[in-house]
Structure formats: C-alpha cells, structure tokens
Specification:
This protein is α+β, with helices and mostly antiparallel strands and 583 residues long. It has 3 domains: 2-49; 65-167, Immunoglobulin-like, CATH 2.60.40.1220; 180-575, Glycosyltransferase, CATH 1.50.10.140. It is built from 18 helices and 22 strands. It has helices spanning 2-15, 18-25, 30-49, 101-104, 180-196, 218-233, 239-255, 287-303, 309-324, 361-369, 377-384, 433-450, 489-493, 500-513, 515-518, 541-555, 558-564, 567-575; strands at 65-70, 78-82, 88-92, 105-109, 117-122, 127-132, 140-145, 161-167, 215-217, 267-269, 285-286, 338-339, 341-342, 353-354, 395-396, 399-400, 467-470, 474-477, 519-520, 523-524, 528-529, 534-535. The chain has a 4-stranded antiparallel β-sheet, with no helix packed on it. A hairpin with a 2-residue loop joins strand 15 (395-396) and strand 16 (399-400). Helix 6 packs antiparallel against helix 7 (239-255). Mean pLDDT is 92; it is low at 1-49.
Length: 583
C-alpha cells in the first residue's frame, strides 16, 4: 500500500507543483481539503525518503612486509661483516607505489648522514632492490622503511622496518709488509716513545695516559723503566740518555714523591710529587702499584751496573727506595696476608687483601725478598695462595688451567708480575708457572675463536681480552666471563712468550689490517671493538708497557734475566718454596 502511494507521489511531483494542486482542490469542502492536504504531505514525505544516499569510498587496504635478504641471505634485521656495496631486497605483500619510495626509505650512518642509494623493482613491483653507494669499511648503517611507503592501490605499509648493517674491515695492508723481526722492532721502537718522548718533563715518570697532563702512574712507570732499559739495549737511545732519565726518575721518587710507610700511591702529580687520589679512600699507599714500580727499578739497577760514580749512585738510590718499603707493615697488625691500600685519612678502610690468583704475585715476591721488612712464608701460603684455594685444575676450551678463576680471567694476570719474574721452569707448591701462563693465554685465544657471544671480528687473528678502555669513556677488565666485545692489542702481544704463533698472527692483523685505525704516535692505541665499530684513541701506560717489555722477553729474555739476577729475589723466592733454573 505504502509503495503504491509513494509511486503516485513520484508521478505527481513530475507534472504538478503545490500551487496547481491547491487550485485544483479549491472548490472542495474544507473536510475534503484537509484530507487531500494530509495525503499530499504523506506523498511529499515519501518522495523525500527516496533521495540517493552519498556513498563513502572504502579506504585502500594496508599492506605488510614479507621477506628481507641482504646479499641473498636472511639473518634477521642485523647484519655484520657486510661488503661495502651490499644488495638489499625487501619484499612486500603488494606492489608498491614507486613514487613513494624516495620519501619513505632512508639509508644513514650512525652520525645521521644520509647515504644515497638506487632502487630497482622486481616481482611486479612488490620487491624493492636497494643498492647504496659505496659504504665505508667497519661502519654502522641503518636502512629504515617508514609507514609512508604506499602500495600501488594507495594503502600504507603496516609497520616500520629497520635493518642494521655493519660493514666488514678493509683487508688491504695499511703498511708495507716486512719480516716478523723487523715488525717487532717497529712496534717496540714506536711504543718506546710513549715512555721516553712523552715521559713527564719534571719527574720523567710515565703519564697515566696520553691525556693525563701532570698525572703520572706508579705501576705504569715501573713498566716504563723496563721499557727504558729495553730502549737502551736496542739502541733507540744511548746509555747516557737512559742513565740521565733514570737519574731524573729516581731523584724525584726519593726526594719529592709522597710515600706512606715507604709505599707509593697509585697516582702522583708529576710536577709536585703530591698524591692524586685514585678514588675517595684510595688516597695513600698502593702496595701492588708500588710492587710494579720496584720491579722496574730493580731491573734497571741490574742493568746500570758500571763502576762509574753516576751508575753506582743510581744503584744506591734504588736500594734506598726498595728498602724503605715497609712490606711487613702492610700485614695490618701482623695478619698472615698483605693488604693492598692504606690511607692517611681512612686507614685500612678499603680492607682489600692482596690474594690470588691475580696480577700481584710480584708483591709477595718483593715482600719476601726485602732485606729490611720481609714477610715469612706463612703470609704467602695463607694470604696469597689461600692455603691452596688458588688452585683450579678445570679444563676450559680443551686446556687445563692450574690456577685462578674460571676461564683464566683477564690476561694481565699473566703479564704484570711476569715482566720481571721468568716463569720458564719456575714452580712452587701450587703450580708450574710456564704451564699456568701458557694455559691462560691459550684459553683466552680459544675462547675468542669459539666466540660464544657471536661478536663480529673475533677469531684466530683477532683475540685478546684484558683490562683496557672501552667505549663511552669506561674501563673494564675484559675476560671470557666479562666479555664486552673489546679487544686490546696488549693482551695478545704481551702473550708472545706463551703463544708465539697465535700472538704473531694477531700482531700482524692489528698492524697490517687495522693499522689505519689502531696505529698512532706511540704504537697501538689501547683497544677496539669491530662489533661496535669503536676504536680507542687513548694510550694507557699500564697497557703500553707490557707490549714493549714482553716483546723483549720473547726476543731476548733481557728483562727476565736482569730481574732474576737480583740476589735478594733469588733468596726471597727460594724462601717461599720456588724452584727453577733461574734461582
């Protein structure tokens, strides 16, 4: 019924208007007029209800990421060791609008600099092939695809895509290839400059690092004194020059530097001799750093052995410095252990014992060898060796480790004390020390080959975990149990006496392949991470010293022979139970 009325209304609207209709009915009675008007209103309402409804066109469908390949391989969204002209294929669930690519795909380095690229299309425009302009080696880049990318039908990409790429090293040689012996000489000579050319002008001592200004380091200076002896022996400087520098150093230590019961602080002001606090409560004696200093001084005493007045006086002054150290006082009230620190303001508050296995074997050897303040064997056995608790005996990466923590710890454990102590054929109740140090180095090497953290660059030619600078201004003792992807050249190079083949392989890699980034005015910079594309620009005395010193021990045994020739050392080590051909 309503449909028929509405049809009539459509017909009425096509041939009459309201005025004509009113004229037509004007002669009718009022009741009829009202009825007709009511019908007319209904007809008009039905007519309005049939007006066409506007239709909103549907939004274009969004589309999604499908697959990714870098140089034909899918490896998630992070790629390392990539060549400098990679081919990146990104596929989608729909054809893309090629006009939207330029504004939605960016390629940048870590500094935010845009890298130009070309884009080609495959699979009916559903795959974009991105080829950046030639990239730089050992650099991080990011490819970003934003949701502004559109499909050919106008839809937007559902989610952002980010691809991280790190380019591989440049394997070309950065310096001319020379014989291994010539290369060792190049490295020693360049490293020597840190201690001689860059030595503090007032005290002659080694600055803590190449940015330290007046801050000099006690332990690093001991290593530097051994480097000085090496430099004279290798004729980098004359004996007279070496003697003059030693006279400057020893006079400063004897007459100017601040000491505490004969022991030196970790850091000193190289001009005034005043303590530079290492930390809040470490503002006094540091017995271990003092040991490294004495290790160097006794080595120099044995080298400058001429009967001249100058060399005789130098030896006497070194004896005074060594004899002034109250080794037994650092037992802290006659305990059977040695303590690392003492502060004039905080006393023994750090309460840090010197016990092993770590870098401080030399501390107990020197304390037992003192003719003025010696310690008895029980202090060594109880304090250092923990009555045997330093033993390990477990196997790591196929090698049995006699002493120390799991996986060996940082490699400086095998270096600092053994710049002077010759481990070859040396043993006591706890270990054979050539076996210990070789095991430590080979475990470190094999760990880096195994590379359980999958850091880029680790391998047979790039290994060595020890204490060093790390990225963002930090410093850490890297080891297999504290691996932050940072390799320090000193670790592998100073292990030359223990792992000559593996260490030379690493040394060649550092010099020839990374020399454009790692070689500076004082030899190798401190550390690097190929995984994070980070390279230190720092030189650190306590890392530079073992490089030149252990290379010399590897080449000639000079420093071992000098230190082990000290009569006090022979007597002291025998008193602790050591045996060996050098005793």
């Amino acid at each position: 019924m309503r449909l028929s009325v509405c049809r009539r209304a459509d017909q009425a609207a096509s041939f009459c208007n309201f005025l004509d209709f009113f004229n037509m009915v004007s002669g009718l009675s009022n009741i009829r007029i009202y009825l007709i008007l009511a019908v007319f209103c209904i007809l008009c309402a039905c007519s309005k209800s049939k007006q066409p409804t506007p239709v909103t066109p549907p939004n274009p469908s969004s589309f999604s990421f499908n697959t990714l390949k870098v140089n034909g391989v899918f490896n998630g969204f992070t790629y390392k060791g990539v060549n400098t002209v990679p081919v990146i294929r990104v596929s989608f669930s729909a054809a893309v609008n090629t006009a939207s690519v330029a504004n939605s795909i960016s390629f940048k380095n870590t500094a935010g600099t845009a890298i130009s690229y070309t884009a080609a299309y495959q699979n009916n425009d559903s795959t974009i092939v991105i080829t950046p302009a030639a990239l730089q080696p050992i650099t991080k880049y990011t490819l970003n695809v934003s949701t502004d990318l559109k499909s050919s039908s106008g839809g937007n990409l559902q989610s952002v895509i980010t691809v991280n790429l790190t380019t591989a090293i440049d394997t070309t040689n950065k310096f001319p290839v020379v014989s291994d012996d010539q290369l060792l000489d190049i490295i020693q000579k360049q490293t020597f400059k840190y201690f001689y050319d860059f030595g503090h002008p007032v005290s002659g001592l080694a600055r803590e690092r190449n940015t330290s200004g007046d801050v000099v380091t006690t332990g690093g200076s001991g290593f530097g004194i051994m480097a000085l002896v090496t430099g004279v022996s290798r004729q980098y400087i004359t004996r007279a020059q070496g003697l003059a520098r030693m006279q400057l150093i020893v006079a400063f230590l004897k007459n100017t530097a601040q000491t505490f019961h004969g022991a030196f602080p970790h850091w000193l002001n190289g001009s005034t001799g005043a303590v530079v606090p290492f930390s809040t409560q470490d503002d006094g004696a540091d017995l271990v750093e003092t040991s490294f200093l004495m290790e160097g001084l006794l080595t120099a005493r044995q080298y400058f052995n001429a009967a001249s007045t100058d060399e005789t006086n130098l030896r006497a002054d070194i004896n005074t410095l060594y004899n002034n150290v109250e080794w037994d006082w650092f037992r802290q009230n006659a305990q059977n252990t040695l303590y690392w620190h003492w502060s004039p303001d905080y006393g023994w508050s750090t309460n840090m014992q010197v016990n092993g296995w770590d870098e401080a074997l030399i501390t107990y050897v020197l304390a037992a060898s003192s003719t003025t303040h010696p310690i008895p064997k029980i202090v060594y056995d109880n304090g250092w060796a923990g009555n045997g608790s330093i033993r390990n005996g477990n196997t790591y990466y196929g090698t049995v480790l006699p002493l120390g923590p799991a996986d060996g710890g940082p490699l400086f454990f095998a270096h600092y004390s053994f710049l002077g102590i010759n481990p070859n054929g040396l043993s006591d109740a706890y270990a054979s020390y050539d076996v210990q140090n070789k095991a430590h180095a080979i475990i470190n090497y094999n760990y880096c080959i195994a590379n359980p953290n999958n850091y880029y660059g680790y391998g047979s030619n790039c290994w060595g975990l020890t204490a060093s600078d790390i990225e963002n201004g930090g410093y850490t003792a890297s080891s297999p149990t504290n691996d932050v992807s940072v390799i320090a050249p000193t670790a592998a190079i100073a292990s030359l006496p223990y792992t000559p083949t593996q260490s030379m392989q690493a040394l060649r890699f550092f010099y020839y392949k990374l020399g454009d980034k790692m070689w500076g005015p004082y030899g190798f910079y401190d550390a690097f991470s190929l995984d994070d594309t980070w390279f230190a620009t720092s030189d650190v005395a306590i890392d530079e010293g073992p490089i030149i010193d252990m290379i010399e021990n590897y080449r000639s045994g000079l420093l071992w022979n000098l230190f082990m020739s000290c009569p006090e050392i022979k007597t002291g080590m025998k008193s602790l139970g050591f045996q060996g051909p050098n005793l």
